[in-house]
Amino acid sequence: MALNSSAQPHFVLIPFMCQGHLIPMIDKAWLLADRGVIVTIITTPKNVACFSSSINGAVESGLAIRVEQLRFPAAEVGLPEGCETLDNLPSMELMSSFFAALRLMQRPVEKMFEELKPRPNCIIYDRHFTWIVETASKYRIPRIWFDGKNYFYQLCCHNVIKFKAQECFSRGETFTVPGLSDRIEFTAAQLPGNLNSGSSSAMKEQMEKTMEAEGGADGAKKQNVWCIGLVSPCDRNNFYKARRGNEALLTDENQCLKLLESWPPSSVIYVCFGSLNRLTPTQLMELDLALEASKRPFIWVIRGGYKKEEMEKWLKEDGFEERIRGRGLLIRGWAPQVLILSHPSIGGFLTQCGWNSALEGICACVPMITWPLFSEQFMNEKLLVQILQVGVGVGVEVAVPMGEEEFGATVKKEEIMKVVECLMEEGEDRRKRENKLAEMASRTVEAGGSSYINITVLIEYVIRQATDGY
Ligand code: UDP
């Protein structure tokens, strides 16, 4: 696509429909638009509803961000209408239908490409849209694969695969990841999807396809890596902090603030297992009992459709909510997580170790209890607990793939209480370390910081490809 060197480059962003992927992509849209790029985000209506007011705010402030909506082909693959996000799937057995729907989006996206003005100069896409390989080559523009995970995870996976590190060990035996300066140990049962024999075949098949497609991408593998971020918006105002993520389901932020205001600094525990949040009712009960027995104030996000009726029945019949009134708050919708974490009353964050949550915890200087569930979360846990020393592990030993929660082990009340006490009593050193990390992170996005420079280099790369012919 020919581009005059003085013209504004046009980037198309195609996020995966799952909050953990969507949120950092929307943050990237801000960062790029802030540097003079025209950004078009292509996604489906239910996903647009998750971020529309924050994007409207960006547009009102003069940033060139546009949103183009496409219908999600749910009916064509047998998904219920309106089921447009991974966290919304009624059953994990429908995961392969969800990926089939993503494949059906190729034609409509390409049709949209024909009509976009100015013509796009680059696509930044989530790895799950494997067909972007064809689209980018058809329109002769760079495709940049966006990965919201961290380098520690990338390096661990790379070395495990390269040295076939886990092959001589049974699923429960620990092995050391070769080639790292720290002694990092896992069992095969803790490894992410494609490396874990316990993952579902739909997930493995999808992972293989995505890895194949990553091969020739301009970002990551082919020739360049542009590290952009940190994208956690701790410096934005309360309105945007609260609206990060699924604002369509957002719980009234004043309810959280009211509880937080009524407790002293560093006293409240915030519990959230991310956007996919699938604890079994048995696990929920153990956690309930532990939080109640800890006698500490807490905010706990129990949202999610998984076994909802069973959970609600238990919460109601047991009278848990009554007993914790004034001290504990249960959030059933979407929590304003960044707003909560940045409140001075928060003293600890029990997290599933999704990378967005981990970064948000570090930037808010909140020590963490790590409770990984699946995917790269066990690797993030090692980074948080062993290397950065900002967290305490609850001691989960085996990853539980989505859809197989009932087969996972339950962490008992006593173990949970032990780590809660340890974190809340000995949080100061962890907080100090986080302070330093948060400062370093915020410098990366300032003018002259590494992220700032990487955005410049990326934009120049895209302009060069557009002017020289890709
Ligand atoms: N999040 C939120 N409110 C919720 C649940 C999650 O704001 O009730 C946000 C959280 O701040 C983070 C993202 O959703 O930005 C979750 O991403 P993460 O990488 O932690 O985990 P995933 O959801 O992908 O497992």
Describe the structure.
Helix content is 43%, strand content 12%. The protein is built from 18 helices and 13 strands. The strands form three sheets. A six-stranded parallel β-sheet has the order 10-9-8-11-12-13, sandwiched between helices. It has a five-stranded parallel β-sheet with strand order 3-2-1-4-5, with helices on both faces. Strands 6-7 form a two-stranded antiparallel sheet. β4 (122-126), α5 (132-139) and β5 (143-146) form a beta-alpha-beta unit. The structure holds uridine-5'-diphosphate. Uridine-5'-diphosphate is lined by residues 19-20, 23, 244-245, 272, 274-276, 301, 303, 334-335, 337-338, 352, 354-357, 360. Residues 19-20, 23, 244-245, 272, 274-276, 301, 303, 334-335, 337-338, 352, 354-357, 360 line the site of uridine-5'-diphosphate (UDP). This is Glycosyltransferase. Pfam families: UDPGT.
> Quick one: how many beta strands?
13
The tally of helices reads: 18
Low-pLDDT stretches are: none
Structural class: alpha/beta
Please estimate the helix content: 40-55%
- Distance from N terminus to C terminus (CA atoms, Å) equals 8 Å
Strand order of the largest sheet: 10-9-8-11-12-13
Estimate the strand proportion: 5-15%
- Bound molecule kinds, no repeats: uridine-5'-diphosphate
Give the CA-based shape: globular
Protein name: Glycosyltransferase
Keywords: Glycosyltransferase, Transferase
Pfam family, one: UDPGT
InterPro entries: UDP_glucos_trans (IPR002213), UDP_glycos_trans_CS (IPR035595)
